[in-house]
Write a structure and sequence with these properties.
Length: about 290
């Protein structure tokens, strides 16, 4: 009889469910469909011939066997990453320019730290800007890589993560949610967040007004925290100063946004190839 071998991709899905609590959130994190996540979980149970989870409404509760396997899965994934890092640590030199929207910079902190430790001979330059501007710089060959919000008008790129959008207000103060709803939005053309918010409100027949606009969340925060406006954000962008509005608020549900990795046409440099691989690993596995 052939030995049963655990698939690391399936174990990554198991850990994502454990971290997020639901199949939907795990699918968003991994950029999978919900049916793919469910299928992988059931396939794992069939392979092991043991029940790993129970459903409590939309949330997943793991059995004792499931919790035990999650512990092993984390160790196996960590060992996998350790092996990859060890093989990567050959001499790589040169220059690398990476574009990131300011509001995504915190997501890549561990990536940048990891890269600098592995490839100390690479001169890394990080440039912040709007997703639209960064995409233009990639297409012009001015950037080696860029992680941006996938644009509806020119999608392209490699989708590496999906993030649900939510409505947020100040943790202690919020505006009236009667029409017209005061919104804090990114400047026109700065990102997809604004388009998603406007479309959701239009589809729901709600009226709104622009209370404040900025190129980044840093600029929007004071107005939202002061209780003067509502803002669309990803859950990763939430801070203790913000509070999510749930469905009881009457605000319409928002679509997810996609984060995409873009690079110029042609063969990438070795530093760019290594950075792209680290970004895929970290952004698909975190959240």
């Amino acid at each position: 009889m052939r030995p049963r071998i655990l698939d690391l991709n399936v174990l990554q899905t198991l850990v994502a469910i454990a971290d997020t609590g639901t199949v939907t959130a795990a699918a968003d994190r991994l950029a999978y469909t919900q049916s793919t996540v469910s299928m992988q979980l059931h396939r794992l149970e069939a392979l092991l011939e043991v029940s790993l989870h129970e459903r409590e409404g939309r949330r997943i509760r793991f059995t004792a066997e499931g919790e035990q396997l999650i512990g092993y899965a984390r160790k196996m994934l960590a060992l996998n990453n350790e092996a990859l890092d060890s093989l990567r640590q050959r001499q790589v030199s040169g220059q690398l320019s990476l574009g990131i929207p300011e509001d995504y910079a915190f997501l890549l902190t561990s990536v940048l730290s990891h890269f600098s430790q592995l490839f100390q001979s690479v001169q890394l330059q990080v440039i912040c800007g709007s997703s639209v501007r960064l995409l233009e710089q990639v297409q012009a060959g001015e950037l080696d890589l860029a992680v941006v919000t996938r644009q509806t008008r020119s999608p392209g790129g490699e989708v590496i993560r999906r993030e649900p959008l939510v409505w947020a207000v100040g943790a202690e103060k919020q505006p009236s949610l009667t029409d017209p709803i005061p919104l804090a939005l990114y400047s026109p053309g700065a990102d997809v967040f604004r388009e998603v918010a406007e479309q959701a409100l239009f589809s729901a027949g709600r009226q709104w007004r622009l209370a404040y606009s900025s190129q980044s969340m840093t600029g929007l925060m004071p107005v939202v925290v002061a209780g003067l406006a509502v803002v669309p954000v990803t859950r990763d962008m939430l801070t203790p100063q913000l509070r999510v509005l749930d469905e009881r608020s009457g605000m319409p549900a928002l679509q997810s946004i996609e984060m995409a990795l873009h690079r110029p046409s042609g063969r990438p440099t070795e530093p760019a190839r290594q950075m792209a691989e680290l970004i895929r690993e970290h952004l698909a596995g975190d959240g």
